[in-house]
Amino acid sequence: MLNRVVIVGGGTAGWMTASYFKAAFGDRIDITLVESGNVGSVGVGEATFSDIRHFFEFLGLKEKDWMPACNATYKLAVRFENWREPGHYFYHPFEQMRSVNGFPLTDWWLKDGPTDRFDKDCFVMPSVIDAGLSPRRMDGTLIDQPFDEGADEMQGLTMSEHQGKTQFPYAYHFEAALLAKYLAKYSMERGVKHVVDDVEHVDLDDRGWISGVRTAEHGDLTGDLFVDCTGFRGLLINKALEEPFVSYQDTLPNDSAIALQVPMDMEKRGIRPCTTATAQDAGWIWTIPLLGRVGTGYVYARDYLSPEEAERTLREFVGPAAADVEANHIRMRIGRSRNSWVNNCVAIGLSSGFVEPLESTGIFFIHHAIEQLAKNFPGPDWDPGRRDRYNDAVGHVMDGVREFLVVHYRSAKRADNQYWRDTKTRKIPDGVARRMEQWKTQLPDSETIYPYYHGLPPYSYMCVLLGMGGIDLKPSPALGLSDPTLAQREFEAIREKTEQLTKTLPKAYEYFSQLR
Ligand SMILES: Cc1cc2nc3c(=O)[nH]c(=O)nc-3n(C[C@H](O)[C@H](O)[C@H](O)COP(=O)(O)OP(=O)(O)OC[C@H]3O[C@@H](n4cnc5c(N)ncnc54)[C@H](O)[C@@H]3O)c2cc1C
Ligand SMILES: N[C@H](Cc1c[nH]c2cc(Cl)ccc12)C(=O)O
């Protein structure tokens, strides 16, 4: 049985892989993780999908175990600001889309919504977020959901097993470096060997398979399976094995970022429990609230803005609190390795692929890849069918998210400069134009979004199209013949539930502080 794994890289991808494999296979797997003491990790990656809870559950971890160690907070949505026009904002929440007479409530909203805010009329969470509240009460109970989070069938699910069963109401924000440190401790306590050294050479045998990695001071590290978690450099998969990298740059031009970690008195500031994406002249700025600081950064395209201008804009956006904070300039490699599993090497994390973090998908990619690799762990025959199925699944996830992000830019109403005008004419992936044409008269559904699993449900597409405001959407004609009473009752029920929650839930900061 193959059971010797060498992971190169100790960022989020490396330690997520090591910890998950130890949880999955225990002492039956031998893991060595080597990371450079000279090459830093990318140091960002602080907002997630709600599905990440399956990762922590699989490791046997409860929120009280890991959140305080990572200064973590809840993320109830992404808030998009100024994508339609200055001053406008809308939410993409973690909340199931309600349906009336077989039509999504947003279709009824298009026909005759109560207000001009689809998000606040069709969902409860936007108002909870605006009020800066926690979705859990001080005793830890979650606002009532159409499922019992404590039920046996909800425990220890993998993301794949859970797909589409329920929509959990929140995701997380956490400090990337603290999460890596927490998972490193978890991993080493369970027997992962940690080597701090630079891999200087990757040895290949005559088949082109990796026989070992040579380090500066700890000799050769050998194994059966090598996991490339070396980030954008793709040291094993792209450099040693020369697996081509397929760029998405022609459809997603943002190739750079500048990040700041801004210390903040969050008790005084208050916590808006969401990630905010504020559109700018040549990209967008993220704001992520953590306990003790805010993570923020400008994602932009160098074809339209210089790093110096980006830094000036970000510092101006943040204000005086950013004055003494060191900037982290990052070049982003946008796209994916043609295959992430080649011979006996699997790339996970930035080495496998990446799109700009507009919907916080980098860690979702890692989590999905780890689950798929654990499920398809190779046997002595190195069955090529397993490898091919793995590469198909991982490729579809990244291609699908790429398409979802293109829809954000294509449907954004903003066209007030060349950057934003170019988002309407830039090349788009095959199939998107046809899908967007369909959505003008029928909101996205499971038949008309990207056809393979990529982590996003149809309602996520609805939120983007309705929020961005650049596409003229029409309600289904059938609604004109239908009785609107039930839809009106649903809108009223949402309004009443929103009013009850905003009166009773605790402030987000108050809830997180008691977790510490
Ligand atoms: C600007 C930006 C914002 C992001 N925001 C989000 C977000 O909000 N949500 C999200 O989910 N994702 C986000 N991501 C993605 C997220 O940061 C990454 O998915 C995550 O950090 C994983 O990175 P990694 O471990 O693959 O690579 P890295 O963090 O770059 O780690 C690479 C590791 O390889 C090691 N290494 C490199 N070369 C060698 C060598 N020769 N020998 C030994 N070790 C070596 C390094 O020491 C390091 O430990 C963001 C990414 C960027 C660029
Ligand atoms: N897999 C889903 C994806 C999802 C559903 N709603 C949202 C909202 C935001 Cl901001 C990101 C992702 C998703 C999940 O993780 O809940």
From TrEMBL:
The keyword Magnesium does not apply. Its EC number is 1.14.19.-. Keywords: Oxidoreductase. GO terms for molecular function: oxidoreductase activity. InterPro entries: FAD/NAD-bd_sf, Flavin-dep_Halogenase_NPB, Flavin_halogenase, Trp_halogen. It is an enzyme of class 1 (oxidoreductase). It holds the Pfam family Trp_halogenase. The keyword Oxidoreductase applies. Belongs to the flavin-dependent halogenase family. Bacterial tryptophan halogenase subfamily. This is Tryptophan halogenase family protein. It comes from Streptomyces ovatisporus.
